[in-house]
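This section describes the prediction task in plain terms. A model, or a person checking by hand, is given the sequence of a single protein chain and must write out its three-dimensional structure as a string of tokens. No templates, partner chains or ligands are provided. The sample shown here is typical of the held-out split.
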Amino acid sequence: MKLKVLPPTLRKNNRYLTLDIKSTSQISKDDLVNIIWDACIRFKGECETSNFNLWVMRFYEIDNTDDYYHYKSIVRCQRDFVSGVRSSIALANKYNHSRIAISTVGLSGTIKASQKYI
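The expected answer:
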């Protein structure tokens, strides 16, 4: 039996955040997932974070300097919780004893539109 696809009116509305990440040590996509989940759980708690529908869609390494590593990423979240995700991510400042700075560069409704911020 074939599964039915949900019509667009019943699907969750997503937004895509483009993040600018600067770190003193090298990080991977898995590390970024841990950083984001840890920041959201610490700031908003487990119950509200479960509603965020977080997912790291894309992860790009931009350039490396002597002082820091520079990355950009696209993160999906649910439309109603964008402000909670943005505030939680902005508060993340350390990971594995290295400093990290994450800021939101752009917000869009599609992945294609969010790639213009990269």
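For orientation: The domain at 14-117 is CATH 3.30.70.3250 (Alpha-Beta Plaits).
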